Amino acid sequence: MKRLKHQIYYENDYTGATVGALLFSKDTVLVDAPLRPDEARSWLSELRKAGAKPRRLAINLDSHPDRTLGTQTLEAQVLAHRETARQFRRRAAIFKALKQESGAEWEETSGLSGLRWIMPRVTFSEHSVMFFDGRELRLEYHPGPGPGACWLVIPEDKIVFVGDAVVIGQPPFLAQADIEAWIDGLDLLLSRPFRGYTIISGRGGKATAQDVNAQKKMLDGIETSLKKISKKKSTANAEIDKLANKLLAKYRAPAKRKAFYLQRLKHGLHNYYARNYLPGSRSQNNH
Question: Which of 13, 147, 156, 187 has its CA 20 to 30 A from that of 104?
Fold first, then answer.
């Protein structure tokens, strides 16, 4: 458990996504959840030792199973974007670990079947502001990485939890992405309003301006490459697979993770391409 300041913590060693916690005099605010139930219980135990109160609010920064499936174990009220709630309603109430090959952590984690999705009790559309012990917490909608994606901004402490807007040391998830909106969010992170902020990535912990710029450069390159591929429609699938391999080479991934990350890239790129470049897709309809 890593301390930021003023009873604000994060941990990026659990399975799934980076998690965070803010400890107040009467409440504990949790940012996402460890994927595995045993790790979620360990997280709560560590927080109790640090003085966390039993009344808990869990914030889901998006609907990805890696960060939301473990919410049941946290025994908390849930707050999320309304699109995250909509994504949950489209799923079976009880989780079944069926192989999807999207390169997500839950696909390689045992013991998850039977968990329930915890529906958000409170949702928001563009932004939401809360106060705990006089400290402002602001939720902002930034849909780039996927539907319902948002940031938790703590202005007084200059800390922002950005979920999968910035992913460090591993490929991003692209299947449900809006790259244009994603890049807009990264530009905002690099602008004056967030100058001096500590950025907590949803996968990788503390992020630097260099990490944000690297994420932006990668996304720009992906969009440019897919536009070129769209002009070679007869060989699109093969070209997308080549692009996935080229992108994977940019990561110093352990050998045992390379096939896993390559699958994530292929799944994301093929799905993104289908949504944006095939006939009848959003991009095609805008021309």
Answer: 187
